[in-house]
Amino acid sequence: MEKPDVVQLIERHNLEYVDKRGSDGALWVIGGRELLPTILKLRDSGFSFTFKGGRSSDYRDAWRYKSSETVSGQKSEAEEAQPVYEEPKGIMNSAQRIDFTCPELCAKTQLLTCTINGQAVVPSKQKWSQLLVAITEQFFAEVNPNLESLDRKPLYGNKIFFLPTKVDSGTCSLLSNGKWIYTNYNPQTIVTIIRNLCLHCGVDLDDVIITYEPKYGKPTQSVQTYTCPANVLPATPPKPMLDTAVVEQLTAVLSSHFTNGYRLNSPIEMTRFRSFAAEDFCEDIMLADEELKSYIAACGTTFDGKVYAVSAQAKERIKELAEDYFADGAQVIFFAEFYAKNENWLFEASVVTENMLIDILHRLFPKLLFTQTYFGYTDASVFAALEGEILRVWGYNDVLLTYGQLAGRLRFIPLERIKYALGRNGDFIRSNVETFSHVSRIEIADEERQVIREAVVRECNTRGYASIADLPFSEIEERNYELSITAVHNAVYRICLSDKFNKKGKIVARKGDVFDALTIMKKYCRTIDKCSLDDLLTYEKKLTGEVYRRISMEAGNTVLVRIDKDTYVADIYINFEADIIDEAIELFVNGDYLPLKSFTTFGVFPDCGQAWNLFLLESYCRRFSRKFRFNTALVNSQNAGTVIRKSCAMDYMEIMTDAVANADVPLKATAVGKFLYESGFKCRSKTAKVNEIINEAKAIRKRMD
Q1: How far apart are CA 413 and CA 389, in angstroms?
Q2: Hey, which residues does 96 pair with through a beta bridge?
Q3: pTM for this one?
C-alpha cells in the first residue's frame, strides 16, 4: 500500500514527479528549495525525501524518495549506480539573478556581477548607480544607434536620459560623450532604468544577467550581536530555574520519538511527548504544560513552529568537518557551501535549513567571528576574505589555476563567489577560459617597467594614447610563456601603468583623458584619402584587439564618403551639388520619409564624380543634404535605413511605428517584423521592440478610425 499513499499525497500537492520504483529505482519529486515546507509535511506522513538530482530527474533539482532496501533486502543496483550531482545546490542561496518583472526585490541589495550578451560589464564601483553608467558606456562602445534619441527622451519619469548639464539637486554621473545622467535613485529604480535602457537599445532581457545578494550592512562582530532570520529561532537558552539534567533527558525523548520535529504549540504533540517520556523513564512527567513547553524549546532549534533535536553525533560531525578544514589554514567557511556540500546527511539529521546550521555553528564555535555569509577567524569584507583565501591556496609554483582547481582547494567557498572575486579583482589576470594567473606570478624586471612607462608617456604626448600591443615587452612574453598574449598585456598594464593610466581594450590613455575606439577611428579616417571596409576593420582590430563592425562603419560614415559596399573615399573625391540633389530626392519622397531601398533609379541625379548607388545616397543624406537626413536602427551594409526630411521631428522608432500603422499589415509580431525587414526599415526580420511598435500602431489606427 506504500506506493498509492505517497503518490496520492504528491498529487494532492500538485507536484511534478517521476516514479522509477517499478524498475528498482526511486520516486523523484521535481523541484528545489521552494518545496521544503511540502517535503517536511510529507516526512511527517512517514515519507522521507533527500534533496539531490540525477539521471531520472533529467539532472534537475529534485527530492528523492526510496525505501532503504528492496524486497530481497539488498540495495538495488539502480540505486547504487544512480549518478548524482557532484555539487548539489543548497536549500538556501544568497546570490540571486535579477527578475526584471519584479525590480522591487532589489531593494536593500548588493550588486555582484553583470554580463550582457555574454560580455562582462564592470562598474567603477560596486554600486547600482555605477552599473547603469557602465552599461551606458558599453552601448557607447558598441555605437548603439538607439542612444541618439535619449537626448530628448526619458527612460524613467519625465527627466530626459542624457542631460546636457549637471542638475543642481541629486547625484549625476558624467559620461564619455560629455553628457550627464541622473543616478540619484534607489536600487529598484536603477534596475527599472537598466531594463528600459536595454530594451531601448534592442537587447533581449534574457541576455542580461545581473546577480545580487541581500545587503545586511556591517558584518556581525560576535555571536552576541548575531540576529537570526525571521523563520528560524535560536533554541531558547535554559533559564536558571531549568534543570540541565532534565533538559538532557527530554532531549533524548525528542531525538528518539520526534525525528520529524515537535509542534511546539500542539496539545496533541504534548500528550504524545508525555506518553513517550513515561515509557522511557517509567514515570510520568510532573511538570505543568507551560513549564514542559519551555524545557522542550530548550532541547533544540525552532523552525516554522517545530522544535528539531539534532543529535550529539550530528553536532560532533559538523564540528569535526569545520575543524579539519580550519586545520589546513583556512580562515573562513561560507554557510551556503558548507550546507550544500553536506546537505543530504544534514537533512536526515533534522538540520533542515542552512539557517538551522548557522544556529548550531554559533553554539559549537562561540569564540569565532560570524558575518551574514561566513564564519571563521576573520570578519573582513567578503571581497577581502575571498582574496585572502584564494591567495592562501595559490601554490608557490602555480602560474595558472582554473575555477575547478580553486574550487577543489576551497571546498567551503561557493564557486560563484570564487568567480566573482577573480573577475572583480584586477590583480587576478585572466589567461584563457576559466583560467587565471596573479600579478605576483608575472616576471617583469624593474628596468622593463621603466621602459614601458616611458614608451607610453611618449605615445600619449604625441597622439594622446598608446596601444598596449605596440609596447616593448617581447622578452616579458617569452619569460611568461604560459600566459596568453592578452593576459601578458593585461598584466603589464596592471603592474606598470594602472596607477596613472586607464586602459580600454588595447587603448591606454592618461587618467582623465577620454579616448575610445570610435574617437581614434574617426581621427584615423581624417588622415586617409581612400580605404576599404576591410582596412578599417583591420585597423580596429589592431587598436582594440576585437572587431565590432559597427565602430568601423560608424567612423567611416561620419568622416568619409561610402561610394560602394567596400570602399570609402575622402570628401575631395566627391562633388555634391546639394540643391540639385535635394530636388532629385524630392521626386521620390512624397511624405516625411522613405526607406533607402525605395530609390531604384538614379537617372535624375546629377554627376558627382562617382557612380550613384544606395551607399552613396546614404552618405549624402548623412552629411551633405540641406533638406534630408538618414537614420537606421543599426549601422549596416544591407542598405537598411530611411531618408527623412529634416523638418520631421520623429525619431526612428516613431517612424517605424508610423509606417506600420499606415501599412496594410496585420499587427502580429511575425508580420510586423517581416514588413519592416522587407520594406528596408530594418536589416533583420526580428526586433526586440516589436510589441511596443504594435501597441503604438494600434493606438494610431484607432485614432485614424
Answers
A1: 9
A2: 212
A3: 0.52
